[in-house]
Structures are given as C-alpha cells and as structure tokens.
Specification:
Layout: E1 4-7, H1 11-23, E2 27-33, H2 40-44, E3 47-52, H3 63-73, E4 77-79, H4 89-97, E5 102-103, H5 108-115, H6 117-126, H7 142-152, E6 156-164, E7 167-172, H8 178-193, E8 198-202, E9 207-216, E10 222-234, E11 237-243, H9 250-266, E12 271-280, E13 296-302, H10 309-316, H11 320-328, E14 345-352, E15 354-355, E16 361-362, E17 370-372, E18 379-383, E19 398-406, H12 409-422, E20 424-426, H13 432-438, H14 442-446, H15 453-457, H16 460-470, E21 488-495, E22 498-505, E23 517-519, E24 545-548, E25 553-558, E26 565-566, E27 571-577, E28 580-585, E29 590-595, E30 602-603, E31 608-612
Parallel strand pairs: 1-2, 1-4, 2-3, 4-5, 21-23
Antiparallel strand pairs: 6-7, 6-8, 9-10, 9-12, 10-11, 11-14, 12-13, 14-19, 15-16, 17-20, 18-19, 21-22, 24-31, 25-27, 25-30, 26-29, 27-28, 29-31
Helix pairs in contact: 4-5, 6-9, 12-13, 13-16
Length: 613
C-alpha cells in the first residue's frame, strides 16, 4: 500500500480522497493555488504545497508543478479527483513515467482510447454495446454534416472529441445552421480540450441519462455497482442525481449494467469509471416502468471518479475511493458481481453558490456568515467548508454535496426535504431553494422527467417563487464597520514552497495582516507552466471606451482586430459562461484601439476586453 498520496485537486473532492487515505493509514498532500491558500482541503491535508497563481492553467492544470510537488513531498501516488487533470491522458502518462510515483486511475492508454469519443464508439460497437447512430470518424466539412442529416434526419448533435458536460456540443435543428454550429463546436473543443475534432450523432430529443458505476482491477475482474439516474440536468449539467433509477424495470437495468461491463472489459480498463447511456423515454402511465425493449444507447465513458459516486456508495456500502486506491496498489477486487446488493434509495444534491432565480448566476464573492449543515440518520455531507470562510470564485461554483439515503424513494424524498430545510447558509446565494422545489415537483416525484425538463418545460416563475420563499440571506458577507478586530490569528507560512500553520495571539493591538508570509528566501522556484507563464493580464494602453466582461467566463473567440472599424451591435468577443456562448457586442460604433485578452483567457466580471475609440 502507498505511504503518501498527493491529491491533485481542491475542495470537497480533495477532502473526500484524503478521508479515504486516512482510513487506509496513508499520508496526504494537498496542492493549492494562491486563491486557495486558506481553503478547506489545505487545512485537512497533512502537508500542502503552493503550485501557482489563481488561474487554473497556471496551477492546478500545470503538469510539471503538480509532479514537482509530489517529488518534494516524497509522495508515492497521485490521485486526480475529478475535473482539472483527472481525464488528461497526457498528464497520466507523465505520472506513469515518474519512477516511484503511481497514478491512481485507469492507464493513460485506456484514458486516451475511451476519452476520444469516436474511438470509444468503435470499442463499444465491437463489444455489441448499442451506440447512437453517428460517425465513428471526425468530421471537418459542413457537407458531411448535411449528408448525415439527409440520411438520419434532424436534429443532429455535433460533439467535440474531448467534450463532456455539454461543453463542445452543438445541436443542428436544420440545414441552415450547419456551418455556424460546426464552427462553434470546433471552437469550443479547441478552447476547452485543446482538440477541435468533432463527430456527429443523432440527437435524441427526450432521453433519460442513466450511468453505470464500474470497478475493474488488473487481474481481469470487472464489476458494475448498479446505475444512477442523472436525468435532471440544466444545460447538460447534472443537478440532482439518484440511484437506483425509478424509471427502469429490473430486466432493462440488468441489460444496461451488463452492456457496461462488456464494454469496459473490451477496452482493457482498470480502476473506477462510469459508463453513461441515453435511454429513450416512452409514454408511460403513472407507476409504469421502462421495459426490457426500451431503446438505450452508449453515450461516453468517464475515466475517473464521478461527482455523484456518493450515491452508489450509499446504496451499496462500497467505498469507491478506497477501492480506487487499493486497485492502483495492485490489489484484487474481492467480491463477485452477485455480491453487489442495492439497498434503499439515495439522492445527491449539488450545493452550488448560484442564484437559481437569476438564471443560475454564480455568486461573485461573499463570506459564509452562517454555515450550519444538516445531520441525522441517512444524511451525508461532502464539503470542505467552515463558517467564516471566504467564497473562492475562481473555479467551479459547487461548494458542497448533500447526499441522502432512505429505505425507498419516498422516504429518501421526505428525508431530503427535512435535510434541505435544516441546511443553513447565510452570506452567499445557493440553489437550496431550487432543490426544495424539485422535491415537490410532480414530474420529478413521478420520475417522468427527461434531460430536457428544466431547460424546456419547467415554468421559471416557480424557481423565482422558491428563491423568494426560501432564499434566505444572500448578502455579500462583508464585515460591519464596528466589528471587533480578532486578536487570535493563524498565519500561513511558506518555506521553500511548503505550507506551515503558525498560530499567533496579539492583545491590545491592531489586527495583524494574515496574508501569506514567505520565508527561506521566498517561495521556491517552480517550473514554468506548459505554454509559458501567465502574463497576469494585459496592460491597458489604448484610448477610448472600454468594453468589459459582464460575467466570469472564458474567451472562446475574438472577432475583431486592432484597427478595425465596428458598428453598434457588432460582435467583438465570444465569451463562454455557464456552458453557453455569449456574444459581447459594441454598444456604439468606433475603432478598435486595443484587444486586452486572448483566446482561452479566463476573465472575471468587470475585466476589460476591448477598447473602442
């Protein structure tokens, strides 16, 4: 077994992995950006290392910085969590090449073959796993899309090879949209996954999203741990996940589970993973289930631990993260498929710092003035928070996961309502009111909703009413002017890049600054990030009116050049935020005197993008 594991992630998933390590008597190492120096995963770890500035590309995504931190810490394994580098085959390959450090996850070869969607479709098709009608090779020409539409009909989904969670996917409803949507999908694929290859699928208009949890070892054992229903989604992003699915008959459930096992075995896959399927919904009476003849199609394999792995853990009693670590250490899966028992029902609620009534707009800052999570039988909370923490807005808006178990789905819903009522958060907005609404929503309670329900059918005024009724305090969390200064302080000291905690007590004196203190000649030097170091933002030199970002996001495309003449309404920049492309347009005509951003840059609300004279 490993001595020390570096967790190449942040927030609740980093703490989740560290807890599993602690139960296995393994030391833990955190990495953190400058924005996360006081975050919960840093507090929890045995030791922690700074890997760079707030921008993810220069810290959490910096391959060399993460590996160098593992070397400094003398860690003998790296666990990636989910997101960031978790599905990056190149990074996994680099870790595999480092002597004395083990990658906790599938091999880089398996990640590459299943991570590229066209390769994965070929593997699944050869393993007799149903796939959605589509292409098995990338497409580059609009004429290929039109020919596919003539053969299979519209709508068509254009998907990025490396995409997921709705990013890099565009829907073509008729031939007139082909050129624009093809270009948009390629652009998103290049921006987010450094891969502009795209492929085509028939777009299913009323699907359910069913995924199967897989665990496989190096000794040829492949087990599935049942399915999760992730059909409640907004813009292809899961919101509430549950298991088992309340819509599937046992016969259909078994067919899907065995298809997942067969496909994973054909790919020589090891460690934990998730095989995702789309199941076509049918007209059903209340209480009627989808039978064994219902259509289901392979969607993709997530070659990592999933956000919603907690649901499966609650209904099987299997600690998936500990199993990941054990499999990576060469241990064999010690249970048979028939030993997997599904007990009761579980749901996971993503607690996002967003205002659901304002188009799920992410919070731009704030302090957790009150943080009082729920408890009681059947209630689990995965978080990395404590009262008084500042909200870090540089990354994902999810701050916690509430997971609730019941003996059946009805009890699970009732217990979830109780837990959500107990969950007290003040200082930032959250989507807790939205979750409470969903648990009383007829479509969700009957489990007849599809992945399109939130985006196309739910009356948005109901979300506004729920936010107004249960929204609570959504203030900015700032301290009042007359608040007493604290006299006990905890310093964060970095010595050669390693983090130490120092407590200091001061009486009868002004507050002590709590910024990071550098010792031993300053922060240890670190390798340049891949692609060079961050410039820290362009210096504004142009004269005229600034065009600023209206929200936090990523620059996908720049439509103008310095010196161009533009008219009011012309698109200047394409900004991705909340999984949607947003055109940033000129409010008046003029000449572009400076472009302050580049494609791929992350920007905050208020950052200057373009200057017009």
């Amino acid at each position: 077994m490993f001595r020390k594991v570096l967790v190449a992630n942040r927030g609740e998933i980093a703490v989740r992995v560290m807890r599993a390590c602690e139960e296995l008597n393994i030391g833990t190492v955190a990495v953190y950006s400058e924005a996360d120096s006081d975050s919960g995963h840093v507090r929890y770890a045995d030791e922690a290392y700074n890997v760079g500035p707030a921008r993810a590309a220069d810290s959490y995504l910096d391959h060399e910085a993460v590996i160098e931190a593992a070397r400094k810490a003398d860690a003998d394994a790296i666990h990636p969590g989910y997101g960031f580098l978790a599905e990056n085959a190149e990074f996994a390959g680099k870790v595999e090449e480092v002597e004395g450090i083990t990658w906790i996850g599938p091999s880089s070869d398996a990640m590459e073959s299943l991570g590229e969607k066209t390769k994965a479709r070929k593997i699944m098709s050869e393993a007799d796993v149903p796939i959605v009608p589509g292409t098995t090779d990338p497409v580059t020409d609009p004429e290929e899309v039109k020919a596919f539409g003539e053969e299979h009909g519209y709508p068509i989904a254009i998907k990025a090879e490396g995409g997921g969670g709705g990013r890099g996917m565009k829907v073509v409803w008729d031939e007139s949209e082909v050129e624009d949507q093809l270009e948009s999908a390629k652009r998103e694929g290049e921006a987010y996954f450094d891969n502009d290859s795209v492929y085509l699928e028939r777009y299913l208009e009323q699907p359910r999203h069913i995924e199967v949890q897989i665990l496989a070892d190096e000794h040829g054992n492949v087990r599935h741990l049942g399915e999760r229903d992730c059909s409640l989604q907004r813009r292809h992003q899961k919101v509430i996940e549950e298991g088992p699915s309340a819509a599937l008959s046992d016969e259909l459930r078994e067919k899907i589970g065995e298809s997942a096992r067969r496909g994973v075995a054909a790919a020589d896959y090891t460690n934990a993973g998730t095989v995702e399927f789309l199941v076509e919904e049918e007209d059903r009476e209340a209480g009627e289930l989808l039978g064994p003849d219902a259509n289901f199609f392979f969607l993709e394999v997530n070659t990592r631990i999933q956000v919603e792995h907690t649901v499966t853990e609650q209904i099987t009693g299997i600690d998936i993260v500990k199993r990941q670590i054990q499999v990576a250490a060469g241990e064999e899966v010690d249970f048979d498929q028939d030993d997997v028992d599904i007990d009761g029902h579980a749901m996971e609620f993503r607690i996002n710092a967003e205002n659901a009534a304002n188009d799920f707009a992410p919070a731009t800052g704030g302090t957790l003035e009150t943080y009082d999570p729920p408890g009681g039988i059947g209630v689990r909370l995965d978080d990395a928070l404590r009262q008084g923490d500042e909200l870090v807005t540089d990354y994902d808006s999810m701050i916690a996961k509430l997971v609730v178990w019941g003996e059946d789905r009805d009890e699970c819903i009732e217990r979830s309502l109780r837990a959500l009522r107990e969950y007290q958060i003040e200082g930032i907005p959250t989507i807790i009111p939205f979750h409470r609404l969903m648990l009383t929503d007829e479509e969700f309670v009957r489990s007849t909703h599809t992945t399109k329900y939130l985006d196309e059918e739910l009356d948005e005024s109901r979300i506004e009413e729920a936010q107004e009724q249960w929204g609570g305090d959504t203030g900015d969390g700032g301290a009042s002017d007359d608040e007493d200064e604290a006299v006990e302080r905890e310093f964060t000291v970095e010595v050669n890049g390693k983090r130490f905690e120092v407590e200091l007590e001061e009486h009868g004196a002004p507050a002590i600054p709590t910024g990071n203190v550098e010792a031993g000649g300053g922060q240890a030097s670190r390798p340049e990030p891949a692609g060079g170091s961050s410039s820290g933002g362009a210096e504004l030199e142009g004269e005229g009116e600034t065009v600023d970002a209206e929200m936090q996001g990523t620059i996908l495309d720049i439509e103008v050049a310095e010196g161009d003449e533009v008219a009011a309404g012309d698109v200047l920049v394409v900004l991705e935020a909340m999984k949607m492309e947003n055109d940033i347009v000129a409010s008046r005509g003029g000449t572009v005197t400076q472009i302050a951003v580049e494609e791929g840059d992350s920007v905050d609300m208020g950052d200057t993008l373009v200057i017009l004279e």
